[in-house]
Amino acid sequence: MRPRVEEVRIQGLGVIDEAVLELSPGFTVVTGETGAGKTMVVTGLGLLFGGRADPARVRPGADKALIEGTLVIEAEGRVAQQVGDVGGEVEDGQLIISRSVSAEGRSRAWLGGRAVPVGTLTYIADDLVAVHGQMDQQRLLQPGRQRAALDRYAGDELVKPLRAYEQAYKRHKQVGDLLHELTAKARERAQEADVLRFGLEEIEKAEPRQGEDVELKEEAERLSHADALRTAATTAHAALLGDPMTTAQDVQDAVSLLGHARTAVESVRDFDPALAGLSERLAEAGYLVSDVATELAAYAESVEADPARLAAVQERRATLNGLMRKYGEDVSAVLAWAQRAAERLTELDGDDDRIEELTREHGELGGRLAELAGELTAIRTAAAERFGEAVTKELTALAMPHARVSVAITAAGEFGPHGVDEVELRLASHPGAPPLPLTKGASGGELSRVMLAIEVVFAGADPVPTFVFDEVDAGVGGKAAVEIGRRLAKLARTAQVIVVTHLPQVAAFADQHLVVEKASDGRVVRSGVVALDREGRERELSRMLAGLEDSELGRAHAAELLSIAAADKGAWEKEASKAARGSGRRAATG
């Protein structure tokens, strides 16, 4: 489905109080008497797609001008995705765009029901519409657009080498950026390597072991409290098993007391089985306490105050604490830092080899780019020649027989994303005139015709779905006007075309004819838009031809124009149908 503008509602703009334009998918023409507000239709469309707001255009007495457009777009297409990205909605393939301009100059925009910056409308419009008005910035006057349009005009021949160039350019840029980073930050990398190397040497010299910090802490605690530990073990041993060095008879140890208790129970155990069980448990308790006492004695013997060892432990702990302050919270973290540092140092030490390798690759890619860029230039030059001849031929039929359009291709100073070519459309308006950029080489009326010729030639290559032309026929009449109508109608076979015109020869080729009608009560002028049927078209064309709506001669001439246009369009349809059938037969037999 081809996107198109389905309906436009205009309120409070110029002389238009309120008007609704229901637009044809093909060729829509807008006519009306001078001062009726035809140009306000184009102005409204321009505002709808991000054009500059002029508060002077707000209707006198109105607070603001409001333009609302309904567009038919692909629900899953690029434009719908862009709308979704800004929070707007597309419902059933329809997109609503609104723009308001207050009398004080404030401007607001809405896209899919979401308030957005006006610039967003301009961005969206890039894929939807090309407005060619007397005062508008022309879409195809942008250098990037001219290059892109020429590339599409060149066709399949350019596709493969351009894709290869773009891939090589992307890699060339990546390699160049990496080389720049490696060489520009050489000092920082050298400093980083020195820091890492110093840290690794310091850790390697200390030779820390996993868990060593915990072990040393425990040993330091023991050595620092050796006397207290020995005293505690000796006291506990004496309490459990007695002190052989004492002669006191009244001091009894735990083992002796347990022995007395067992002896007392043993003497009567045969009288009650329950007491026998308790006797066995007392025996077990005596053995257990005796074992503990033996271990306490051995522990007391093993604990010795060793000032020299304590000093060594404290010195080692100080060394490890110094590492932990710099490289990690414990020895495990220090060892992990050392592993990472060694890997990073290996990477940094390998940068010289990497720079050499990247430099070689960068040079090879540069040579490949130069080769592909030359191929692109050759293809574009040939396409530019064909294009210039085609547009010049169109201009001859558009009452500019001495004008010549050419495409200047110049080399940029460096590789770009699409080659080294700078593309500029130029116009020599008469023999002997130097080719100038379009904005400098043509007047307003001439520029509209040049743009029409370009759009006709680019139709299909520069696939904007909607074209709007204002006064494209300025300064033209007679046979040339008929040719303009024919070309607009041909363009409408591949795109939606909306044209404001004062020429009946152009209006006759339209698929839909809208007339801006002016009404006045003596004080206030209002304009509205009306869609005409066949009879209404004859009356309007007669007015445009003779200034009289009901002139018999004018009506006859209008009917003749409509018949000629219908015959031409019918012939085009037959040609298209025949070509389609021929293509289908070739595909079936192929």
Automatic annotation (TrEMBL):
Superkingdom in the source lineage: Bacteria
InterPro entries for the chain: DNA_recomb/repair_RecN, P-loop_NTPase, RecF/RecN/SMC_N
MF term (GO), any: ATP binding
Gene expressing this chain: recN
Keywords annotated in UniProt: ATP-binding, DNA damage, DNA repair, Nucleotide-binding
Protein name: DNA repair protein RecN
Organism, as annotated: Microbispora triticiradicis
Entry's family note: Belongs to the RecN family.
Annotated GO CC locations: bacterial nucleoid
Free-text function comment from the UniProt entry: May be involved in recombinational repair of damaged DNA.
Biological process annotations from GO: DNA recombination; DNA repair; SOS response
Lineage, top ranks: Bacteria, Bacillati, Actinomycetota, Actinomycetes, Streptosporangiales
Record domain RecF/RecN/SMC N-terminal: where: 6-521
